[in-house]
Design brief:
Blueprint: E1 8-9, E2 12-13, E3 18-24, E4 27-37, H1 40-60, H2 62-78, H3 80-91, H4 95-117, E5 122-125, E6 131-139, E7 142-146, H5 154-165, E8 169-173, H6 179-190, E9 199-201, H7 206-215, E10 221-225, H8 228-238, E11 244-248, E12 253-257, H9 263-275, E13 285-291, H10 295-308, H11 327-342, E14 346-349, E15 353-354, E16 362-363, E17 366-369, H12 376-379, E18 386-392, H13 395-403, E19 407-408, E20 410-414, H14 418-427, E21 432-435, E22 451-452, E23 455-456, H15 466-469, E24 470-478
Parallel strand pairs: 7-8, 7-10, 8-9, 10-11, 12-13, 12-20, 13-18, 17-18, 20-21
Antiparallel strand pairs: 1-2, 3-4, 5-6, 6-24, 11-23, 14-17, 15-16, 19-22
Helix pairs in contact: 2-4, 3-4, 3-6, 4-5, 9-10
C-alpha cells in the first residue's frame, strides 16, 4: 500500500524537506515506510489556514459538527482490524490491543458527536431590573495537539474529537515513532466536508516543530500528553503568550494488596496492570504495595504469572506482551534494571533482553522485591515492563506509601473490606482510583487526569473536556420595559 507523505497542511498532503524511517519493533528488517517532517514554514502555513477555517467551522453549526464527527468515529470502528494492524506493526502492542485502541478512538468521536448537539448555555436572572444575562461557551480557537506514541490513535482522538466538536481548529503534532497511525487517522478526517485548513498534521522533532507551536502567539490552546520534563518546558514557553494549557504527564501508580484480598484476582490484576502494553502505559502499576501477611505468597504467584506471559511479535497469535517500542526505550529499561540492583532491590525475575526469531526490542517482564519508596525505581516513571514490590505492615502504612509520590494519576486497592475501599477512595491523592480493578482502563465519557506532577490544567474526556476546549462568555442585554 502506497503511504501518504505524513504531512497534511491547509487541505493538502505535502512533502517536507526531510523524512524519517519507520521500522517495526517486532521485526527490525521490516520498514513500514518513510514519512515527511514538517518545516517551520509549513507550521506557519498551517496556523494561517486554521485561523481562516475556524470561524467557518463554528458558523457551520452543531448538526454539521455532529455529522462529521459521527462519520469519523463510525469509520474508525469499522476499520478497527485494519488500522489496529498498523498500530501493532509500528508501535508493538499485540493485535487485540491495537484493534481495541482504534475502536475506542471511534467511540471518542461518536460520543463527542452527540456532545456537539448538547452544547448549551444558561439564561440567568440579573440582580438589576430589566437586564438579561446569557452565559454561553464559545470555541477557544486554534488548538495544538501534541500526542505520544504509546496510544497513537486513542490519545489524539480524545483531544481532536472534543476540539472539533466545540468548534475549534486543530494542528496535530504526533510522535515520530508512530507516523503511520497518524496518517491513517488524518486520511479519515481529511475526507470529511470540513473547511480547508481546519485540521492539519504537522509531524516533526519537538525541538523544531513542537517549539514553533508552543511559542506561537497565534495559538489559543495546547493539549499535551508526554513526560514531565517536556511538559514543564512547554509551560515555560507557552506562558509568555498566556496560551491555555492542558497537560497529562508522568505517573508512578500504586496498587495496594491487602491481607483480605482475593489473591487470584490480585495477581491477575497486578500482572495485567504492570505488564499490559509492555508496561508502556501512563496508568501502569509500577508500585505494588503488599501487606506483609500475604506478601511472600503474592510475590511467588506474581513471578509465576510474569514468567508465563508470552512475549513475542505483535501480530503473532498468542502474543501477550509485544516488544518495547524502540532501541532507546529498551536501553532505558535495562538501565533501570541495573539501577534497581545497585539500590539493593532483589530482582525476582525478568529484566533481560529476549531473542526471538525476528530481531526486535523484546524484554522479559521484571519483578523487583525488597524495595523502598525512596529508591529511584519507586520514584521515577520507568515506562517499561518493570514493577516493584513493597512490604507494609498495615493499611495505614500502605496508604501513606501509596501517597508518597510527586505523581497522582491512578491508584488501586485490592481488598474485601468496603470500609477500607471507601477510605482509600476518599484519601488516596490520585485523579483516578480503582477498587478491585486494574489501574489501567478508563471510560471515555467521564473525566481523566491526575494530581501533582501527573497533570496540569482542566481534565480530559467526558463533559469536563468543555472546560479546556471552550471559553465562557457572559452577555448582558438591556431588555427595557413593555409599554
Amino acid at each position: 500500500m502506497e503511504q501518504q507523505t505524513g504531512l497534511y497542511v491547509a487541505g493538502q498532503w505535502q512533502r517536507g524537506e526531510t523524512e524519517i524511517e519507520n521500522r517495526n519493533p517486532s521485526d527490525l528488517a521490516d520498514v513500514i515506510g518513510h514519512y515527511a517532517q514538517a518545516t517551520v514554514a509549513q507550521v506557519d502555513q498551517a496556523i494561517a489556514a486554521a485561523r481562516k477555517a475556524q470561524p467557518l467551522w463554528w458558523a457551520a453549526g452543531i448538526q454539521k459538527r455532529h455529522d462529521v464527527l459521527m462519520a469519523i468515529g463510525t469509520e474508525l470502528m469499522a476499520r478497527a482490524d485494519e488500522i489496529g494492524r498498523i498500530i501493532s506493526r509500528e508501535e508493538g502492542k499485540p493485535l487485540a490491543e491495537g484493534r481495541g485502541e482504534v475502536y475506542r478512538a471511534g467511540q471518542f468521536f461518536t460520543w463527542f458527536a452527540a456532545e456537539a448537539l448538547r452544547l448549551a448555555g444558561e439564561r440567568v436572572e440579573s440582580v438589576r431590573p430589566s437586564i438579561g444575562i446569557e452565559v454561553r461557551r464559545d470555541p477557544v480557537g486554534i488548538v495544538a495537539v501534541i500526542s505520544p506514541w504509546n496510544f497513537p490513535i486513542a490519545t489524539p482522538a480524545w483531544k481532536i474529537a472534543p476540539a472539533l466538536a466545540y468548534g475549534n481548529a486543530v494542528l496535530w503534532k504526533p510522535a515520530n515513532l508512530t507516523p503511520a497511525s497518524a496518517v491513517a487517522l488524518t486520511e479519515i478526517i481529511a475526507r470529511q466536508d470540513i473547511p480547508v485548513g481546519l485540521f492539519n498534521l504537522v509531524p516533526g522533532a519537538g525541538r523544531d516543530i513542537g517549539q514553533r507551536l508552543i511559542e506561537s502567539p497565534a495559538l489559543d490552546a495546547i493539549t499535551f500528553t508526554g513526560s514531565v520534563p517536556v511538559g514543564r518546558a512547554i509551560a515555560a514557553s507557552a506562558i509568555v503568550n498566556m496560551t491555555k494549557l492542558q497537560m497529562e504527564m508522568g505517573s508512578k501508580n500504586p496498587m495496594v494488596i491487602m491481607d483480605d484480598a482475593d489473591l487470584d484476582l490480585a495477581v491477575a490484576h497486578a500482572c495485567n496492570s504492570a505488564f499490559g502494553g509492555t508496561g508502556q502505559k501512563c496508568t501502569a502499576a509500577s508500585r505494588l504495595i503488599v501487606h506483609e501477611r500475604v506478601h511472600d505468597e503474592f510475590a511467588a504467584r506474581l513471578v509465576a504469572a510474569a514468567k508465563a506471559l508470552e512475549v513475542g511479535p505483535a501480530l503473532a497469535s498468542g502474543t501477550q506482551i509485544g516488544p518495547v517500542v524502540s532501541a532507546a526505550q529498551l536501553a532505558q529499561n535495562l538501565d533501570y534494571i541495573a539501577i534497581g540492583k545497585a539500590e539493593g532491590a532483589d530482582l525476582l525475575c525478568g529484566g533481560e533482553r529476549l531473542n526471538r526469531p525476528s530481531e526486535g526490542y523484546y524484554m522479559a517482564p521484571a519483578v523487583f522485591a525488597g524495595t523502598r519508596n525512596d529508591m529511584r525505581i519507586n520514584r521515577e516513571e520507568m515506562f517499561g515492563p518493570i514493577t516493584c514490590l513493597q512490604r507494609v505492615s498495615d493499611y495505614d502504612e500502605a496508604l501513606a506509601v501509596a501517597n508518597d509520590s510527586e505523581f497522582g494519576l491512578t491508584a488501586g486497592i485490592m481488598t474485601a473490606s468496603l470500609a477500607r475501599a471507601n477510605h482509600f477512595r476518599a484519601n488516596m491523592r490520585a485523579g483516578c482510583v480503582m477498587v478491585n480493578l486494574l489501574t489501567a482502563g478508563t471510560d471515555y465519557h467521564v473525566p481523566f487526569g491526575g494530581r501533582g506532577a501527573s497533570s496540569y490544567g482542566p481534565r480530559e474526556q467526558g463533559r469536563y473536556a468543555a472546560e479546556f476546549f471552550t471559553t465562557v462568555k457572559t452577555s448582558y442585554i438591556a431588555e427595557g420595559t413593555p409599554e
